[in-house]
Amino acid sequence: QVQLVESGGGLVQPGGSLRLSCAASGIFFSLYTMGWYRQAPGKQRELVAAITSGGTANNADSVKGRFTISRDNAKNTVYLQMNSLKPEDTAVYYCNAEGTELYYGMDYWGKGTLVTVSS
After folding, report:
1. Using CA of residue 58, residue 76, residue 67, residue 119, what is the dihedral sign?
2. Torsion angles phi and psi, residue 87, rounded to 5
3. Which of 2, 20, 38, 116 has a CA that sits 20 to 30 A from residue 63's CA?
4. Collapsing DSSP states into helix, strand and coil, what is residue 84?
């Protein structure tokens, strides 16, 4: 059974930092591109950052210079370090696993973790 479990969300003041984690199980983690998406109230889900199995990372323009995605294949975990948080970063953050090579076409989601940026 595949599970993606996010943690680390919460309430933070503008300018603060949070680190999200996503622990994966039931997948061959090192052959999955891992991503973080977010969905704010009344808006569509959007890609925040993604990292390939080889470690190549891409960030959305809105978070460049503030957010950093990383992965630890030994721990089957992907992280999102979020710095200089803004109120507009408030959203539910979802972890995504997209298969590559033998697992191409496989796609899994976590249940999300809420990040609220407010004073």
Report:
1. positive
2. -55, -35
3. 2
4. coil
11: helix, coil or strand?
Answer: strand
Rounded to the nearest integer, the mean pLDDT of the chain is 96
Bridge-based pairing state of the strands 113-117 and 10-12: parallel
Answer yes or no: are the C-beta atoms of 105 and 53 closer than 8 Å. no
What span, in angstroms and rounded, lies between the C-alpha atoms of 69 and 67? 7
In this structure, what token pair is assigned to residue 42? 């009344």
- Report how far residue 68's alpha carbon sits from residue 108's, in angstroms, rounded to the nearest whole number: 21
Measured at the CA of 33, the angle between CA 29 and CA 36, to 5 degrees, comes to 105
